[in-house]
Amino acid sequence: MTTPSHELSGVRYVVDDVAAAVRFYTTHLGFSLRTDPAPAFADVVRGPLRLLLSGPASSGARATPEGSGAPGRNRVHLVVGDLDAEIDRLRAAGLSFLGDVVAGPGGRQILLTDPAGNLVELFEPAPR
């Protein structure tokens, strides 16, 4: 089920290969394809999150102005019910993670990358 577009929150990721990114998010992370993928662009949806996947030929892939901040820390944050089970499932599918599980007062998390190197954080909230 998708949410009406006026209720979606969008995040743009620049990707090298739109088809590979669509496969990654729909196969492994529970997103649904919202538009037919084209070489330049596609978007996928999970709950209220619309992820815009912009390939090299898209307008969204134009250079970010200099001085706009250091890359690498921004990421999509996906809440999961059982982090260990998700890690096992994704490793069985051949995916690898950046580092180990990190635990804090709010919960546990681990990072992986999509095919273009964009970060995805899987987060399991601490029991309340």
TrEMBL record:
List the InterPro entries hit by this protein, alphabetically: Anthracycline_SecMetBiosynth, Glyas_Bleomycin-R_OHBP_Dase, Glyas_Fos-R_dOase_dom, VOC_core
* Superkingdom to which the source organism belongs: Bacteria
Supply the PROSITE patterns for this chain: VOC (PS51819)
Ranges of residues in domain VOC: 7-125
Pfam families from the xrefs?
Glyoxalase
Give the matching SUPFAM superfamilies: Glyoxalase/Bleomycin resistance protein/Dihydroxybiphenyl dioxygenase
Please report the name of this protein according to its UniProt entry.
Answer: VOC family protein
